[in-house]
Specification:
The protein is mainly beta. The chain is about 5% helix and about 40% strand. It has three helices and 35 strands. Strand 23 and strand 24 form a beta hairpin. The longest helix is centred in the C-terminal third of the chain and has 11 residues. The radius of gyration is 21 Å and the shape is globular.
Amino acid sequence: MTLDRRELFHRALLAGLGASLPGEALAAGLAAAAQPQWALALGDVDGDISPRPLTRLHGRLPADLAGTLYRNGPALFRRGGTAVNHWFDGDGLVRAFALRDGQAVLQARFVETAKRRIETAAGRIVQPGFATPARPGAVVGSADDTNAANTHVIAAGGRLLALWEAGSPHALDPATLATSGPVTFRPDLKGMPFLAHPKVEASGRIWNIGLSGRHAFVWRLSPAGALEAAQLISLPRASYCHDFTMTQRHLIIVLQPWLHEKASLPFASGMVWRPEQGTRVLVIDKDDLTKQRVFELPALFFFHLGDGWDDKDGSIHFDGAFDDSPLFATETAPALVEGRYPRTERPLLKLISLHPGGRAQLRATDTTAEFLRNPVGNAGPRPTFHVGGYRPGRPFARSIGRWDWQRGRGDSHDFGAHQIVEEFVPAGRWLIGTSINLSARATELHVLHSAHVGDGPVASFRADVALPHSFHGSWLAA
């Protein structure tokens, strides 16, 4: 199928630009206002962080754990008296925690995007984003002019790829974190959307999708990060999808009823919550993308899904962190930038089962969970690692958990009220992740045994800086 990028993607991006110039969200007075302690998680980083050793707090690094944890997240929200309107719109800062010879070393560097260059020159926030409107001085010729490259970072083909929702990956040097620029996998695919949540098979092959309205672009990359295939498919509806999942044989796109009803900037301004329309789950055969099935579920809202698996009877299973509505995206995340927390989040871990006869089943737990991660390459039921422990009155997680669907139970470690816990990723038999110690005003690094999460860290380190809350990352073994 021939792809007309201008019609399907470029035009949709530019359609609402001229009408999206409301008043600016001013940062003036924000720093002077009384800020809650947790606001450290949305503080601004002035510049790159040069390599520096972390201080060991307790324990020792396991002898079989050597490599680098890369993480990405927004780290600059305010410029020249202006601010972004949403947590998701800050400039991306890639962090590298290198573990070798019992030591941990941190460095961090901003991704040099077109957005960052334009706003650095302007001295203020001008570019549109997920929920930040375009302002006078905005330059928008393609999606990559608004690309914050702030959501995830993966290793592929000897380079790092800093990822966002709707634009190109940005290539970084794994050693220095220097930005090479946007990645074009093929000349006619320049600027095509590449979601921030690629899925990796046991072989190392990478699958991803890119979305625009009722179309999805399916990417398949080799373990070396080279393009193997790229194909356009139609979707049953234009739904917001931050994440998708897959099994050994299928791609799974969950089409929640937060619908993209208007092509506009910022992107969120065109979204409408339609719970009466329920949730549709699109299952696609990896070997033939034209073979598709659709399953129906009640209305669900989510950002993140776990990896899936196929049963011998043909059933498909996967889990996710599900909420009742998109209020976090529409109300809470914008308020966080202002130092406000208007509601208590309670995303719950749930299992979705899709049966051969067309029946979809939802199994809920009472476990609060977000930022789900699984061991790569499991063909059957696998543990799901997640953050949790959400409490009234304060955003962000305080615990790391492990859930076992075969046994129907989990365990967790609570880091305490003074910690904001970020995503942990599997690294062999270990889990490695970060937290923000609010009392010490410092970022910390922790290693846990993946089978004994409840025992807490086997080793912890502390940086001499507090970096803002990051979103996602990857472990690259040495």
